[in-house]
Write a structure and sequence with these properties.
This protein is of the alpha/beta class. It has 3 domains: 3-38, no CATH class; 56-65 and 311-411, Alpha-Beta Complex (Aspartate Aminotransferase, domain 1), CATH 3.90.1150.10; 69-308, Type I PLP-dependent aspartate aminotransferase-like (Major domain) (Aspartate Aminotransferase, domain 2, 3-Layer(aba) Sandwich). 31% of the residues lie in helices and 16% in strands. The protein is built from 10 helices and 16 strands. It has helices spanning 7-14, 66-76, 94-111, 125-137, 151-160, 278-283, 293-308, 312-331, 361-370, 395-411, and strands spanning 3-6, 35-38, 55-56, 117-122, 143-148, 165-171, 194-198, 200-201, 206-207, 220-224, 241-245, 256-261, 337-338, 350-355, 373-374, 385-388. Keywords: Amino-acid biosynthesis, Aminotransferase, Pyridoxal phosphate, Serine biosynthesis, Transferase. Residues 54-401 form the Aminotransferase class V domain. This is Phosphoserine aminotransferase. Pathway: Amino-acid biosynthesis; L-serine biosynthesis; L-serine from 3-phospho-D-glycerate: step 2/3.
Length: 413
């Protein structure tokens, strides 16, 4: 049953009490009181342990491993006998020092990151790195190359225009971001300080299966890997800098991971804000100011979980299997479902598709939600349907979605 709250009560939560105002300021008229209905949550307040009742296909913040959430739950109130939650303790205390150092150590093991690189846990999301990259890697009048394969690489390019002289060496905009070019057709600037690309475009579902090489031997390869970070092996040694928002595969929103070659952390532009300066962050081991402690703690639990699963190669195999099942269902639907992305570069993380009868898309999303498959609506900029099947999405979630897709098609001939 809906709870009824007088709107005057809601007003008092947002405005000073009338009684606190001078009498002359009060309205001489009788107050009009209406009622506002507050609907109850569509979800039950409790669910059985180990079964939250939905498959969450959100693009981010995204689903997290069940084992990680249960571990965090058990340590939320009292972290390992400290008498404090991670959210309460000093970021310079011995407990959190252990948390952040172990998180870094486990990430280094997962991706075979050598000591030639710093691993930083920063704030501001990957979007903040759109500015931090040029500020740290080049001067205001120096060129940089950008491959634009979707919305996020386009945003990165536009932000960099404030801090260097970037050049778009290839753009997929004219083809609605459905492909990635052959690297030999990319006309790089031989003087570019770095070559930037987005490893996986979350909105458009385009993923690099291999990585370009800067033609300038002194240039630096830079990647935004936010939505496929830790989903497959990557040779970090080929990069100068990798950055990734955590809220797709490795944690909650609030922390951004930066892996940057040590020799590149020394010569930021004079205008670089202190919080965007990699050297300051590295010199202070990501603790220049209070970091997103709880988000880093969750990332650490995820790294432990990935290692327990057999490491990144094993995770990649499971991700490929999930994606294959879903793409096979789309391609085998005789055109009822359509994925616009070129097959060779389809993302294993974000699967966008439309229905040939676009008027059915809203019904599809609503009926899927009733079957406890949620967050399937495509990004507001492109519409359609999008299933994000990150590391923590179980195979059963994809199988349930495919079964629903087939049933929905049968019911709408």
């Amino acid at each position: 049953m809906a709870t009824i709250v007088p709107s005057s009560s809601l007003s008092r939560l947002l405005s000073p009490s009338l009684s606190s105002l001078p009498f002359s300021s009060r309205s001489p008229h009788r107050l009009s009181v209406t009622c506002t209905a507050i609907s109850p949550s569509p979800f039950p307040s409790t669910v059985a342990a180990g079964d939250r009742g939905v498959y969450n296909f959100a693009a981010g913040p995204a689903t997290l491993p069940e084992s990680v959430l249960l571990k965090a739950q058990s340590e939320l109130y009292n972290y390992r006998g400290s008498g404090m939650s991670i959210m309460e303790m000093s970021h310079r205390g011995k407990e959190f020092d252990f948390v952040i150092k172990k998180a870094e150590s486990d990430l280094r093991r997962l991706l075979s990151i050598s000591d030639d690189f710093y691993v930083l846990f920063l704030q501001g999301g990957a979007t903040t790195q759109f500015a931090a990259v040029p500020l740290n890697l080049c001067k205001i009048d120096e060129p940089a190359d950008y491959i634009v394969t979707g919305s996020w690489s386009d945003k990165a390019f536009k932000e960099s225009q404030k801090f260097c002289k970037p050049n778009v060496v290839w753009s997929g905009k004219s083809e609605k971001y459905t492909k990635i070019p052959s690297f030999d057709v990319i006309k790089q600037n031989p003087d570019a300080k770095y070559l930037h690309f987005c490893g996986n475009e979350t909105i458009h579902g385009v993923e690099f299966k291999d990585y370009p090489v800067p033609k300038n031997k002194t240039s630096i390869l830079v990647a935004d890997m936010s939505s496929n970070f830790c989903s497959k092996p990557v040779d970090v040694s080929k990069f100068g800098l990798i950055y990734a928002g955590a809220q797709k595969n490795v944690g909650p929103s609030g922390v951004t991971i930066v892996i940057v070659r040590r020799d590149l952390v020394s010569d930021s532009q004079p205008i670089t804000p202190v919080m965007l300066d990699y050297k300051i962050q590295a010199d202070n081991a990501s603790l220049y100011n209070t970091p997103p402690c709880y988000a880093i703690y969750i990332c650490g639990l995820v790294f432990e979980d990935l290692l327990d699963q057999g490491g990144i190669k094993a995770v990649e195999e499971r991700n490929a299997k999930k994606a294959g099942i879903l793409y096979d269902a789309i391609d085998g639907s005789a055109g009822f479902y359509i994925c616009p992305v070129e097959k060779s570069v389809r993302s294993h993380m974000n699967v966008p598709f439309t229905l040939a009868r676009s008027e059915l898309e809203k019904t599809f999303i609503e009926e899927a939600a009733k079957e406890r498959m949620v967050q399937l609506k495509g990004h507001r900029s492109v519409g359609g349907v999008r299933a994000s099947i990150y590391n923590a999405m179980p195979l059963a979630g994809v199988e349930n979605l495919v079964a629903f897709m087939k049933d929905f098609q049968a019911r709408h001939p």
